[in-house]
Design brief:
Elements: E1 11-14, H1 20-33, H2 45-57, E2 61-67, E3 70-78, E4 81-87, H3 96-107, E5 112-117, H4 121-129, E6 133-138, E7 149-154, H5 162-193, H6 204-217, H7 222-240
Antiparallel strand pairs: 1-2, 2-3, 3-4, 5-7, 6-7
């Protein structure tokens, strides 16, 4: 979905149910041509057709790009989510994707978010050129293809200063300090009740479960980084409880 410059002979209009057959054919072709940048499709052409029929008749907002009556691109919006942008594989690098992304920003001036596969570097670069920033990565367990993906966001708000961002971090750090202190108190109470307290009695299975649970809530940090963080937190809590290494 990379594009050079915006075309001047392109008609962009709302999608209608009568566009279904041409739109489904374009979508299926574009989706299959995107492999391996995108994982192989998990739906048949017939299922694509049925899905698009639901989109054109449902709550999602559909737009199409056409030239001389030929459908060349599609945009699907759902609330503040840019759900889909696809361009006919024979007409990529013609600026059609750029037109559709800019249209989405015009239609949602309050901001947009989207999901893109991590392997789809062309799409990620396109969105980045239009002001989207990557804010979250996942291992893909929640999408149909089970492929790692990235959430990107675009906001029309003025750029926030470094000082303001640091101020927000200070507030978070203050809350974090309070939570860590509360955790240390609870940890000390547990140590008083354990048969083998201190570092020697650490429950590695319990710690692994904690890290896995936290990783689901903080995918940007991931399990490996969180394991290092929680090891330091647990060590500090045990030391504060008066249980040395030995």
């Amino acid at each position: 979905m990379t594009n050079s410059e915006e075309p001047t002979d392109l008609l962009v209009r709302p999608g209608h149910p009568e566009d279904l057959d041409a739109l489904a054919a374009m979508f299926s072709a574009a989706r299959r041509a995107a492999v391996p940048s995108m994982p192989p499709p998990v739906h048949t052409v017939e299922e694509d057709h049925a899905w698009l029929a639901d989109q054109l008749a449902g709550d999602r907002e559909a737009w199409v790009a056409e030239r001389a009556g030929q459908l060349l691109g599609m945009l699907l919006l759902e609330d503040d989510r840019l759900h889909s942008v696809y361009v006919d594989p024979g007409h990529q690098n013609e600026g059609i994707g750029t037109v559709l992304v800019e249209l989405a920003k015009t239609l949602r001036p309050g901001g947009l978010q989207l999901w893109v596969f991590q392997t789809n570097t062309g799409a990620r670069q396109l969105y980045a050129r239009h002001g989207f920033v990557e804010v979250e990565e996942t291992d893909g367990r929640h999408n149909e293809e089970r492929a790692p993906d990235v959430r990107m966001e675009w906001s029309s708000a003025p750029e926030v200063s470094v000082a303001e961002l640091r101020g927000r971090i200070d507030v978070i750090d203050d809350h974090l300090a309070t939570l860590l202190d509360e955790r240390a108190v609870l940890s000390a109470q547990i140590q008083d009740r354990k048969r083998t307290p201190g570092h020697v009695g650490r429950d590695t299975e319990r710690e692994r479960e904690i890290v896995e649970r936290m990783a689901r809530r903080a995918p940007r940090l991931g399990a490996e980084r969180l394991a290092l963080i929680m090891d330091a937190v647990i060590r500090a809590s045990l030391d504060a409880a008066g249980h040395p290494e030995d």
